[in-house]
Write a structure and sequence with these properties.
Largest sheet: none
Protein name: DUF3135 domain-containing protein
Number of helices: 4
Pfam family, one: DUF3135
Number of domains: 1
Number of strands: 0
Oligomer: single chain
Organism: Aeromonas veronii
Region (Disordered): 82-111
Low-confidence stretches: none
Radius of gyration: 21 Å
Shape: elongated
Length: 111
């Protein structure tokens, strides 16, 4: 299904929010159908969390804030994990000389 233009979506949001939600669900299902089975499982879990935050929200703005906070938390967790990985200082794997390997530990942030 092709997504309606912005003005149509805006009108649906004001007059028929349930129809807009149906379009959203259809778009999400189409996107998930293109993912691998492993990715589908993770995406469905994430969508479950997003839907839960939308249900808990008092209004659309609250919903956006809640989902933004979810993304921010995920980003900070990823950033923390990457920092720990970098700080562990594991020795780089041995190279067989067949290609150029760039070690992330060689490019630490300079202050």
């Amino acid at each position: 299904m092709e997504l309606p233009d912005f003005d149509t979506l805006k009108e649906l949001a004001a007059s028929e929010p349930s129809r807009l939600d149906a379009i959203l669900e259809q778009q999400i299902d189409q996107l998930m159908a293109r993912a691998s089975p492993d990715q589908q499982r993770r995406l469905r879990g994430l969508q479950f969390k997003i839907d839960g935050q939308r249900r808990l929200a008092k209004n659309n703005l609250d919903s956006c804030i809640r989902i933004t906070n979810m993304m921010r938390e995920s980003f900070y967790l990823m950033r923390s994990e990457m920092s720990q990985f970098r700080e562990e200082g594991d020795p780089p794997p041995e190279s067989d000389g067949s290609g150029k390997i760039i070690h992330l530990t060689d490019y630490r942030r300079r202050k």
